[in-house]
């Protein structure tokens, strides 16, 4: 119990540091620290505090790209961010959440607004960013326990098509704790505080991050590109989730 209490205090202190990151970026007149590099450092420390051991497999594509990953937990973001100086795409509601929203803002998260034209506005906002760095999004749109990979929602794949950046799928999976408890999945009615306490109580786990082969978006529409990325991730961690290729969508649908 003492170990859990001490780790909880370390997490609380580290959250405060995370909320101060925008100030460091603002006073960084000579460009010594970038927002992305500070976020990478912060997430690596968070994983150490949580006793999450990171294993990386596959080949990371050099240069800017659009990365997509299956979604299991809020831990997905620290795992990817610990390896990549990048920014994430999230639903707009996340920016309104206490603490999590502030941290997302500090990390320079791009938000997808609901309604007509939301995807187009997002593409416009990240186009300049893709000139020098990458982005990550989770196309399932929700989390699973990691045993399956849900269908990928295709609309954000327009980002890769419009900017002609390669897509690199990333397969994520987490081990169970030593006592057999699946502590990482954040699904259903799970509460963030309870999930963190479960992680601390049951001890060390391993997060595996697998870089899949990159996909050239040229010649794809959103649906076929989403399917290709989904298939690559399924082949790495969940072959039973592979789906039948979709029908081609109209060209006009890309800008919807």
Question: Could you characterize what this model shows?
Answer:
- With 256 residues, the protein is an alpha/beta fold.
- The protein has one domain.
- It has 8 helices and 7 strands.
- The chain has helices at residues 2-26, 35-50, 76-83, 100-106, 118-127, 158-163, 192-202, 222-237, and strands spanning 52-58, 66-69, 87-91, 110-112, 135-137, 167-174, 205-211.
- Strands 1-7-6-2-5-3-4 form a 7-stranded mixed β-sheet, sandwiched between helices.
- Strand 3, helix 4 and strand 4 (110-112) form a beta-alpha-beta unit.
- The radius of gyration is 18 Å and the shape is globular.
- The termini are far apart.
Strand order of the largest sheet: 1-7-6-2-5-3-4
Q: Which shape, going by the Cα principal axes? A: globular
* Gyration radius from CA atoms, angstroms: 18 Å
Q: Quote the average pLDDT.
A: 87
The SSE order reads HHEEHEHEHEHEHEH
Q: In angstroms, what separates the terminal alpha carbons?
A: 52 Å
Helix coverage percent of residues? 25-40%
Uncertain segments are none
Summarize this structure briefly.
By secondary structure, the protein is an alpha/beta fold. The protein has eight helices and seven strands, in the order H-H-E-E-H-E-H-E-H-E-H-E-H-E-H.
């Amino acid at each position: 119990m003492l170990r859990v209490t001490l780790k909880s205090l370390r997490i609380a202190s580290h959250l405060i540091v995370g909320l101060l990151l925008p100030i460091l970026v603002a006073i960084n007149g000579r460009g010594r620290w970038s927002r992305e590099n500070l976020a990478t450092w912060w997430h690596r420390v968070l994983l150490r505090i949580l006793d999450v051991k990171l294993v990386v497999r596959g080949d990371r594509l050099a240069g800017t790209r659009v990365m997509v990953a299956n979604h299991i937990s809020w831990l997905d973001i620290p795992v990817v961010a610990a390896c990549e100086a990048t920014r994430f795409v999230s639903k707009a509601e996340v920016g309104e959440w206490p603490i999590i929203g502030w941290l997302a803002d500090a990390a320079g998260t791009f938000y997808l607004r609901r309604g007509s034209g939301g995807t187009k506005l997002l593409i416009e906002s990240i186009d300049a960013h893709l000139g020098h760095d990458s982005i990550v999004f989770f196309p399932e749109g929700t989390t699973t326990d990691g045993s399956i990979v849900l269908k990928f929602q295709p609309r954000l794949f327009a980002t890769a098509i419009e900017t002609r950046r390669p897509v690199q799928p990333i397969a994520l999976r987490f081990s169970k704790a030593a006592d057999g408890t699946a502590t990482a999945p954040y699904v259903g009615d799970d509460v963030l505080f309870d999930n963190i306490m479960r992680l601390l109580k049951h001890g060390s786990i391993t997060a595996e991050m697998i870089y899949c082969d990159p996909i050239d978006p040229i010649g794809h529409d959103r649906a076929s590109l989403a399917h290709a990325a989904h298939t690559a991730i399924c082949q790495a961690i969940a072959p039973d989730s592979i789906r039948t290729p979709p029908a081609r969508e109209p060209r006009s649908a890309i800008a919807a």
